User: What shape does this take?
Amino acid sequence: MAVKIAISIEKPLFDEVEALAKEMKVSRSHLFSLATRELIQRRKNQKLIDAINAAYEEPADAAEARLRARMKSRHRQLVKDQW
Assistant: This one.
């Protein structure tokens, strides 16, 4: 189901939208729908990335810190002569 809305945008932006819609051979309405979907998906993705980053920002406990140190040391040994 489609819903009609009225929006106001600056003339230069309107001109770019008009040109892009013609280039893509779609209506302005469809172009706005595509752009809105893209923006919503990017926002969802950013929220997910932020949540993942927040989870990794939690300080490591002592056991995890020791494990990370051993892993870094082992990784350095493995790649030492590769660079």
